[in-house]
Amino acid sequence: MSTKTDRWPLDPINRQSEVMFGLLMTLTFTGTISVALGEGATVRDILTAALGCNIAWGIVDAAVYLLTTATERARSRAQALAIRTAPDPEARAQLRALLPGQSGAVMSDAQAGTILAWMRDNPPDRDTGPVLRHADFRAAFQVFLLVTSATFPPVLPFVLVESVPLAMRLSNAVALGMLIGIGWRLDQQMQGERPLMRWLVPLTGAALVAVTVALGG
């Protein structure tokens, strides 16, 4: 039976980040639509360019995800192999260096030795397999879908509404709502008591779009 993890290879934070990336890319087009219309472009031209840009960046982002995943997995394998094959003092030092925060500093030699013995007695079989698996390609495809699908909500008002100024306001409202929703989901992942990301994400998104447009993006 397929589990939720199987259906969604990316974790929730990465999913929200990819949607935000695609949304911000789209806003760099819709934010300059009045200027583009004044220069002779049509709404259809601009929306086609926005969709094409997000499709291209979805492909790029998916490819980068695969490259990053392969690199990180190969590095993890190399680190695990180095720890298993190193002399005990060096292996314990390498093991401590991999632990987050102050965990390594407070770990005793006995504790490090127990973990080291377990690693040597139980080498994972998948360390000799391919660095990219089926789930990784599914996750990369999900990256592509998330970045591309984020194009449609903010451009839909331009398709349904004839008045460009009204469509612009509706598009901005949709984008703001999406950014607040992304921030809300990030707040849930952070499990904090104060609502931080639901306001920080829209403000940051607006600032990033303004900077991108100002620099000619």
What would you say this structure looks like, in words?
It is a single chain. With 217 residues, this protein is mainly α. It has eleven helices and no strands. Helix 2 packs antiparallel against helix 10, helix 4 runs antiparallel to helix 5 and helix 4 packs antiparallel against helix 8. The two termini are 45 Å apart.
Radius of gyration: 23 Å
Q: Low-confidence parts, pLDDT < 50 over ≥5 residues?
A: 1-5
How many E-type strands?
0
Structural class: mainly alpha
Q: For the record, give the distance between the C-alpha atoms at the N and C termini, rounded to a whole number.
A: 45 Å
Shape: elongated
What string gives the helices and strands in order?
HHHHHHHHHHH
The proportion of strand residues reads under 5%
Q: How is this fold's topology laid out?
A:
Blueprint: H1 4-7, H2 12-30, H3 33-38, H4 43-85, H5 88-98, H6 103-106, H7 109-121, H8 134-149, H9 152-160, H10 164-190, H11 197-214
Task: Summarize it.
78% of the residues lie in helices and 0% in strands.
Features:
217 residues; mainly alpha; disordered N terminus
